[in-house]
Amino acid sequence: MSAEEFVTYLTWVVYVLIFLAVAARAIRRPERTNIDIALFFAATTIVIALSAAALPAIHLITSTRLIAAVNGTLILGLAYLLIRLLDDFAEIPRYLVYVAGAGWLVLSLGLFLWDESPGWLTLLQILYLVGFQLYGALMFVREARRTSGVTQRRMWAIAAGSLLLGLNILVIAPRTAMPGLEPLWDVLSQTLGLASGISYFIGFAPPAFLRRAWQEPELRAFLSRAASLPRLPTTEAIITELERGAAASTGAPNASIGLWDEEKEVLRFEMPDGTPLDYKPDPKLPAGRAWITQQPAFSANTLRDNPDYAEVVSNYRSQATLSAPITAGERRLGVLSAYSPRAPIFAEDDLELVKLLADQAAVILESRALIDEAARVRGREEAARLKDDFLSAAAHDLKTPLTTLVAQTQLMLRRATRMPDAPADVAALQRMEREAIRLKNLVLELLDASRAEQGRLVGTRERVDLAALAQQVGQRHDSRRHPYQLETNGAAVVGEWDRTRIEQLLENLVENAVKYSPEGGPIEVKVWPNEDGRMACLTVSDSGIGIPATDVPHLFDRFYRGGNVDDRQFAGMGLGLFICQGIAEQHGGRIWASSNPNQGSTFHVELPLSANGGEHGG
Asked: Are 342 and 89 contacting, i.e. CB atoms less than 8 angstroms apart?
């Protein structure tokens, strides 16, 4: 057996086997696309059968002009059937299908009218075949560039098949022009035909094992990301990633997840334009059928089967739909659906893949629910802890002035009862005034902490010289034990701020510096504009007890106090720095600290000089 004969027989066998496979599929699912694919390979198989029957070894028929015309008609029909298949898989002008059909009929008729086709007719036939093959190749390349995953690989395979078939037709011309090399051109022609048939088969009707191999990279990538999805900021972000992964894995243009709303008893989807859609499960649609039966569902032509849902179907461009329930144990969470505007994109065995993706989505959504529940529990525990801290701190700090006020009031009451004419005890009244002011300040601090949490600390802004304000605050705190040292380089630093709140920030920082320096030491304050002149910079430094490194990240939390702070020596509720942070941030700035135990602390503040430099409360 020569090489030419081997390639010829191999090509015939492969085409016949492909035809049997696609014919069985068309019989099992008699849809337009499956029928077109079967007809496409049937045309080639009939040509092969007629060629084989005319072989001298078999000689069932004799090659005649009629047989040649039939073969030519079938070969020309490949171009028309390719355009029909292109219309099944992609969007092309509808008139093109009619043009291809009319051209096939006219050119085929010429084969029967002339005993020997004239040159111009042969040229038209070659242009018809090659032109539509190349057009089909270009259109399938375009579809491949628009899609991804398994669909993209199928489109590339079909484009390759069209290109190879076009080349096969072009090989006919040099074969007739070089009679001495006919065997070589025949081998080349048969090889191109074999490669074309295989490419068409794996593109139009890929076997299940090949689809799985093509889907595996996207599926593996999706599963590798699955562990991190529950940690995304919101459930909406998780849903978006799940939809993107499902679309890539199935080769669909888009996918959607509808979550079950227990109260309304609907599946809530998000439409492609972002608007929500509440869908009451209906078995007419695959999503409703999957939800009700808790089994995956497939519809090859959703719009044809469900005209009542034309608007919804058109919004999702869902000519074909795959749906699977998202269920965690006995808990129904929702439905995952993949949509395609072209029915041949999906196969029934894709239901297993969609079910796998839906199960993975259930695991991810359940994990997120557990994380949210754990966060709620931690939130309740934190709220309870903060409440206990507040009550403890408030009780401790309010107890001292209240005790002093009550004791002093009782003492003065007894003296007034025994000696009505005795002169007023000025020292006692002064102590009462100090403790009453201290109580007032504690209450104001609690109110400011609440305003800071609500973002309502900062009020009306005005032009304020931070250097001059720091000087005024320093004059109130300067002492021999804690000398106040201000460094401004003599320049004003003027910004648009809430004067009262900026003064409060300075007061808190300087008071803390004094309080936490029980052995004394200077309080050093620096004020300057930054290099680009857009921010005011402020530092307050002391040489006190310092702050342990583990405490620094938590200094500005409500009710937080350093681990080296003795409540009996250093009174306070842990709200001062929390309020300072609120003042800085609501001016559009920031505050942070640097410190080492027993080496003092430095607090750094940056504030935008312009009101446009940050958000502020009213």
From this structure: yes
Eight-class DSSP state of 74: H
Among 46, 48, 24, residue whose Cα is nearest residue 37: 24
Q: Tell me how long the chain is.
A: 618
What are the two backbone dihedrals, phi and then psi, of residue 259, each rounded to the nearest 5 degrees?
Answer: -95, 140
Q: Hey, is 592 helix, strand or coil?
A: strand
User: Would you call 261 helix, strand, or coil by DSSP?
Assistant: strand
- Token pair for residue 433? 């005034």
Token couple for 455: 């973002």
Q: Give the CA distances from residue 165 to residues 42, 131, 140, 170, 189, in Å, rounded to whole numbers and listed in that order.
A: 16, 11, 14, 9, 9
* Residues 166, 164: Cα–Cα separation, whole Å: 5
pLDDT for res 252: 79
Strands (E) located in 448-582: 462-465, 484-487, 494-497, 523-529, 535-541
pLDDT by 10-residue block (mean), the chain, 618 residues? 72 84 85 85 84 62 75 88 85 88 91 81 86 87 81 86 80 56 68 84 83 80 81 86 85 85 88 78 86 87 60 62 88 88 68 86 87 80 66 61 75 79 75 74 71 80 93 91 90 89 92 90 93 90 90 84 68 80 92 90 93 51
**pTM, to two decimals:** 0.54
Tokens matching residue 602: 């430095």
Kindly calculate the radius of gyration of the chain based on its CA atoms and give it in whole angstroms: 42
CB 482 within 8 A of CB 520: yes
Give the position of tokens 């006995």: 330
Is beta strand 484-487 parallel, antiparallel or unpaired with respect to 523-529? parallel
Alpha-carbon gap, residue 401 to 432, rounded angstroms: 8
Q: Which residue has the tokens 């029934």?
A: 348
